[in-house]
Design goal:
The complex is a heterodimer of chains A (135) and B (267). Chain A is α+β, with helices and mostly antiparallel strands and 135 residues long. Chain A is built from four helices and seven strands. Chain A has two domains: 53 residues, N-terminal domain of TfIIb, CATH 2.20.25.90; 67 residues, no CATH class. In chain A, β2 and β3 form a beta hairpin. The two termini of chain B are 38 Å apart. The chains are: A alpha+beta (135), B alpha/beta (267). The complex binds iron/sulfur cluster (3 copies).
Chain lengths: 135, 267
């Protein structure tokens, strides 16, 4: 019997509400807002309250898909990344660095967002960086 | 007080009366519900008091239901305040938990918390630690009733209009366990739309809580819009009491008047 409440941060937006992911024997069962968190003081929005659901959703994409002959096909991470790298290079060479834009996300960590803008500026050479909250 | 609670839990675990005890633990600087399974692991135990008494309470009965559904044969202990014990009585009545599979570790609430809760019975029947304090008369509902009708109407309309439909009041409630919830029935409540259906959303919930709400106040505390939900449910509970002499969870084996057919029971 393995019952846990894991303290974590909601991935839905940049507010950073703290919540507990409740699990029983390795399966997520509930989300509970953290009362002692100074950020959300025991409150959440509807997305936060249901954050445990998408993790185990059957509809969740957990392997990369590549469009081959017009059809989305499961591929390995290596193949997906190699394809992305070659395409990015191709576009950059043909049309210049500013032909590529980057969308960061409120759903990832600060560090990941930092890495992405670094990649945009240092590897591709563009400052066209924006984030999903403006969409 | 916490030492007495710790001793009690330790005893229940060591003599094998329970498989585990649902209580609160302090970890990473935060209070969280926890299932204690070993008597040597009781160091982080806490009672949910941080800056003020009872300010980090969680719906432990809800946790217990989750675990008991998975392990129906085992007996579990649970830390209870007055309201939690009332909750257990109602959950037994509604067949969500079995009384012979639950052992309580009851603690009394201090006067300060009882006042803040306007609590009728700030202690459990089976008390393990803490001093019993007097129940508090429910002034909040009285003040509301003294308000002029049109003022009262606009007060609640304004309050309800603040709702962001997070469903937190339902999700935190230890007495909400239905697999299908009326608040998700699209014939009554629109899906994915704001503003919320006024007053249907809040009154539907209030109606459904009439014989279930045990006045713990967790909904009130989790409402991001600061809607005085507890006050609303205190009012329905007052009506139940006036009409049927019934207060949810006050007597262990009491049936809900809403489940009885025939003439109203004697008050
Ligand atoms: S409702 Fe009563 S028993 Fe529950 S926390 Fe408040 S004072 Fe304590
Ligand atoms: S006070 Fe709120 S959270 Fe507590 S039982 Fe009543 S409706 Fe549920
Ligand atoms: S907790 Fe408050 S805001 Fe959220 S659904 Fe309930 S009443 Fe509305």
């Amino acid at each position: 019997m393995d019952y846990r409440n894991t303290l974590t941060t909601c991935t839905y937006c940049g507010c950073g509400c703290n919540l507990f992911l409740e699990s029983l024997d390795g399966k997520l069962t509930h989300t509970t807002p953290c009362k002692t968190s100074p950020v959300n003081e025991g409150k959440l929005c509807i997305k936060g309250w249901n954050v445990h659901q998408f993790v185990q959703s059957e509809k969740r994409l957990n392997k990369p898909l590549l469009r081959k002959d017009g059809k989305l096909t499961e591929v390995s991470w290596d193949e997906a990344l190699d394809f992305t790298v070659s395409k990015l290079k191709e576009i950059k060479e043909a049309n210049g660095s500013d032909s590529v834009g980057f969308f960061a996300s409120a759903k990832v960590t600060n560090e990941e967002n930092y890495l992405m803008q670094k990649f945009a500026r240092a590897a591709i050479g563009t400052n066209s960086v924006d984030h999903c909250a403006r969409l | 007080m916490i030492d007495i609670v710790r001793q009690k839990i330790s005893k229940l675990l060591s003599d094998g009366s329970v498989k585990g005890v649902v209580a609160l633990a302090m970890a990473n600087g935060h209070v969280a519900p926890c299932l204690f399974q070993k008597e040597d692991d009781l160091e982080p135990l806490c009672l949910g008091d941080t800056k003020k008494p009872g300010d980090a309470r969680y719906p432990l009965n809800k946790v217990l239901i989750t675990i008991a559904r998975q392990y129906p044969e085992d007996v579990f202990g649970v830390l209870v305040r007055g309201c939690d014990e009332r909750g257990l009585y109602v959950l037994y009545r509604l067949n969500q938990l079995e009384p012979d599979k639950v052992m309580t570790i009851g603690i009394a609430c201090p006067q300060e918390l009882a006042k803040a809760c306007e609590c009728k019975k700030p202690y459990p029947d089976e008390l393990v630690a803490g001093e019993k304090t007097e129940g508090i008369t429910q002034q909040g509902v009285q003040d509301m009733e003294d308000m002029d009708l049109s003022k009262r109407f606009s007060f609640w309309k304004n309050q309800f209009s603040k709702c962001v439909k997070c469903y937190g009041c339902r999700d935190i409630c230890p007495m909400c366990f239905c697999r299908e919830c009326s608040l998700e029935c699209e014939d009554i409540i629109s899906k994915g739309e704001l503003p919320v259906d006024i007053p249907v959303f809040h009154l539907t919930r209030a109606m459904h809580m009439t014989d279930r709400c045990i006045d713990c106040g967790l909904c009130d505390e989790t409402c991001p819009s600061g809607i005085p939900l507890r006050l609303l449910y205190k009012k329905t509970s007052k009506i139940m009491n006036a009409e049927f002499g019934f207060t949810s969870g006050i007597n262990k084996n009491e049936q809900s008047p809403l489940n009885l057919m025939g003439p109203a029971p004697e008050k």
